[in-house]
Amino acid sequence: MGRNRARWNERATAHAASSDYGFRRFADDRSYLSYAVRFDLARLGAVTGLRGIHLQCHIGTDTVSLARLGARMTGVDFSPVALGEARRLAKLAGADADFIEAEVESAADVAGEGMFDLVYTGNGALNWLPSIHRWAVAVSRLLRPGGRLFLREGHPALWSLSDEPPDGLLTIEYPYFERPEPTAFNDPDTYVATDAVFTHTASYEWNHGLGEIISAVLDQGLTVTALEEHDSVGWNALPGLMEQLPDAQWRLRDRPWRLPHSFTLQAIKAE
Asked: Hey, what domains does the chain have and what are their CATH numbers?
């Protein structure tokens, strides 16, 4: 996890400076919401008055957006640099949100056990965690009885595909199911527009099959209330094969119905 932390620490400042994350828009327009939360709105429903926690919040744009919708939000991340940018964003945006440094697995030890009405997790989070079981334990510990998990994530079928496909073909290259060992990557770039040059290029990721995710949630006594697979995702996951949609989502240009791009899972902790 240390090498992944170094990677995120280095990229956080560049991400905050990029127009893709829209810090200036948050400051200038007090009604502005992140693209991710706008996509989620119809499924999230009203969050006014809920005490929410955003796991792996990065630089806080989704956390601040949920706070703007009326939730009392806490953001959690393992990167102190990202959290510094998140606090700066909250101040710029005039949003009341707290941010704490913690690994997902120890979030309840720091933020409080059974204290939250809503656990929110967004795109590009689960792939950094080695154990979906330990993630589900952490979610259950955070939720109060009757509290809700809201997860939207890249689909594990998408994560298993090569991002450099030969001849434009969809090619399965990486594990679909969780494996003990991570998949190692060496990528000097990042997913936002930036001129920054990075030195921490290594990353280590794990995929988790959809059945594994659902089973982990069920094993913690949560009841799944909704599962929806989407034909779009929030980043250009397969460069050269995708087109950007008006809502900032990305979709396969050729026959997008072949691939589940992302999914939304909701579950309730028993009273």
From this structure: 2-269 (3.40.50.150)
Q: With a cut of 70, say whether residue 1 has pLDDT above it.
A: no
Query: pLDDT by residue (tens digit) across 193-203?
Result: 777 778 888 88
Find the mean pLDDT for residues 164-170. Answer: 83
pLDDT at position 194 is 76
Max Cα–Cα distance, the chain, nearest Å: 52
Cβ density class 52-79: b for 16+ within 10 Å, e for less: bbbbbbbbbbbbbbbbbbebbbbbbbbb
Nearest partner of 58 among 75, 34, 37, 44, judged by Cα: 75
Q: What is the DSSP letter of 120?
A: E
Q: Is the dihedral of CA 182, 188, 191, 197 positive or negative?
A: positive
Pairing verdict, β 72-77 and 143-154: unpaired
Task: Tell me how crowded residue 117 is: count the other CB atoms within 10 A of its CB.
Answer: 17
Q: What is the pLDDT of residue 33?
A: 97
Tell me the pLDDT of the chain averaged across its residues.
Answer: 94
Measured distance CA(69)–CA(91) in Å, rounded: 16
b/e 187-214 (16+ beta carbons within 10 angstroms → b): eeebebebeeeeeeeebbbbbbbbebbb
- As a dihedral over the C-alpha atoms of residue 58, residue 59, residue 63, residue 68, rounded to 10 degrees, the angle is -170
Q: What angle do CA 211, 260, 179 make, to 5 degrees?
A: 40
CB-CB contact of 252 with 141 (8 Å): no
